[in-house]
Amino acid sequence: MHTEPHPLLPGSPDLHHLHAALGLDDDRETEPRTGRPHRLHTEDGAALEARWFEPVGPARAVALMAPATGVPQRFYAPFAQWLSRRGYAVLTLDYRGMGASAEAPEASMRDWMLRDLPAALDAVLARAGRDDHRLPVIWLGHSLGGHALPLQARLHEVDAALTVGAQLPSFARWPAGVPRFGAWFFFRAWVPLWVGLTGRLPGWTFGGGPDLPGPAATDWSRWGALPDYYRSDPSMAGHLHASNWRGVAHLWCIGDDWVFGPEPAVLALQRVFEGAPGRAELLTLHPHEAGARRLGHFGVFRRHLGERVWPHWLQRLEAAVPALRR
Hints:
Blueprint: H1 15-22, E1 36-41, E2 47-53, E3 61-66, H2 77-84, E4 88-93, H3 109-128, E5 137-142, H4 144-147, E6 160-164, H5 178-198, E7 200-201, E8 212-213, H6 214-224, E9 248-254, H7 263-272, E10 279-285, H8 303-320, H9 322-325
């Protein structure tokens, strides 16, 4: 049964898309475990479960699918399968403490962005090859998986990026009134309360899905209460590499994603790349353009909705990146 969110808690009205894809409600739509298993090893010794989705013939490009907060890699299997049929080799992964990599319960968001995703990007760059035979590399980021992009030390080696609902989610970027108070309440009171009581952030407390490790929830809470999210944290300053961006980034804002990715928060991520040699373009998708009543933060990754949108997104990116047209 689907319930509407409490006005002060971030239960997105489109969470049934996530629940159904993961088999968490009556509308079961679980994806088979497709793709070739692969194990990633991070610089601090963590082992992460990942999967390669390879094309039948030679790959035309290599892509990394960077997940959102608390979302297991199998949610992105339809998108990865679809891309592989178009000649893209795609790597998906579960962050430490999540999904098939759940053996590291003390995982933080810093770990996810500064250790797990760099290990995945290393694997993607290795798969792409070197020198004249190097394939183009694409970063596909959903939510946190998108706002981790400026933190990558090898950012200058990424040719293109496509992000969905990726943002710098400081509470002041929600619309004034109840939405902004709800975001403030969530970051400043709700998350610390439940982490203090349980040591984790139970999935039901933010609308559903897997529980979050306590350190990851604490990072989310602390940064969300700052004026510019992790950019306001002095300890993160040395990890910002946005000025090295040389590629083309399409940052997609979903028109009805008012809970997790309001447009001002997505725009804030675009502004991180200002002054870089590359381009970062803010684009908006409204539900009616996908023939849907709602898309929200998760809907576009469901196969039956995404296949109406993914061709347009990919064609637009390929048109903007000459290396993808070869």
